[in-house]
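Question (not urgent): is this output format expected?
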Amino acid sequence: ERTGTGSITEGIGQGRITQNTKMAVVDSAVHVPDEESIAMVYRLIHEDGIFVGASSALNACAARKVALDLGPGHVVVTVLCDAATIYASRLFNRAWLTEKNLLEAIPLNYQTSIYDP
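Got this back:
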């Protein structure tokens, strides 16, 4: 059942199960707030040179949470499924980030990637 107020990440939290996952056994789900996801977009770009979109950043956040919960000696795999180029007009737009109350989630030293339209 859906909870929360939605997300900036397109295609998640819509309460639908796609054909390719209908038979999947799901042990649990990980909630990632938009603030963490947007911070990860900028972290991956600035620290690792990986130009990801919000879906990939969300996956990276969830994988990190799972890895921290499992502790040493485990392997966690995720998919980086989108690129920031598709969402650049929003993810790096100061007005959009401010409107969504996400600007403060981005560390100041990474805000050099933000533009003013």
